[in-house]
Every structure is written in C-alpha cells, then in structure tokens.
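Input/output pair, single chain:
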Amino acid sequence: TRLNRDGRLAWPGDDLAGLLGLAGQVHAATGGAFDPTVQPLWRALATGQDTTAAAALIGWHRVRVAPQEIRLAPGQQLTLNGIAQGWAADRIAALLRANGFANALVDMGETRSMGHRPDGADWQAQITDANGMPLASPRLTNRALATSSPQGTLIAGQPHILGPTGQPPLWQTASVSAPSAALADALSTAFCLMPRPAIAGALAAFPGARLEALA
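Output:
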C-alpha cells in the first residue's frame, strides 16, 4: 500500500523483495504476460476512469527493485493479486513445518500440501471447468496447486485477469502445480493469456512446474 501510494519504498522487507523477484522471473519467462503493473488499468475499469491513460502506465521493465529501494515509474502501481495468495500459502506451510507439522493441506486461495492425508494417502485435487465438468485430478504430495479463471471475477463486465498489452484471456481455466504456491499462482494467471506453445516455453524455465489443466 505504501509503495503504491508513494511510488517508492526504502529498505523493503525480505518477503516483499522476494515476491517481486519471483514476479520478475515469471514476467520474463511468460514474455510479459504476467505483469503486476496492470493495477492502474484495473482501477480505471473498476471506477469508470480513462483506461487509455491507465494502460500507458503498464510496464514491469520500468519497476526498479533493489535491496535499498523499490521504485515505480511516475503513476505506476502494482497488484499482487496474481501471486500473493500463493505466497501466503507458502508462508503458512513454512510456519507449520517449523512447528513440527509434517502433514497438512494449506488453502489460502491457492493450495499447498505437506506430507500425506491422515489416512496415509496422497493429497489429490479435483479440477473442474467453469461449468463444473471435471478436467484433471492431480496428486499433490508436497506440491502446490493454483487455478485461475478470468471470468471468476468481473470488472465492469470484463474478466479480472488483464493482459498488459490489451490481449483478452484465451482460456477460461488454467491450473498449474509447482513446488511453491507463489510460482503456481503466477504461472496460472499468466497462462490464461497465452497460447499453448508459449505456455510450454514458460514451463521450460521452471522445471518443477506442470500444467495440470487448460480449458
């Protein structure tokens, strides 16, 4: 909140710096499809303001992230909606592990599993499309799962996942599993905007990540 308000944040904490570092990696791997600087466009749509001016502010390449300071270009703001729920799940899982819990399922909007179910079986998810039809049932032993659905939330009648160059979503549902929920969250968000060949290229940058469902 302070970063968006002031355009800069001195000596950011490790969590925020690490989160933005991962955001930069996913931005690069997805050819810019994942871009947290879409926040001004999101706000303009939500409040009925000028979207042309807001779209001109988008551009992750203009964000400066360093140990001493995070600085945004004039007028820029960030949204972490496409990655922070996963980050929260990872942090809760780490706290549970540090306190001696070996088996747990964490759901903070995105899912992170640890160990096994109480009956000793693997954790397993059920992914459905927007109409409730089953798409996949991946096993999630010590893995995370994130699912993004652009139509799940609408802004002024438009999908809430916004393409940084104005591109519309190509898919109604994208599910990704990965070693971390933050990574799965960011990739599933970006994949809603990307054709299959580009998705395959992005996955190559993160060997532990898998596309579980796309519809």
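The two ends are 34 Å apart (CA to CA). The longest helix spans residues 14-29.
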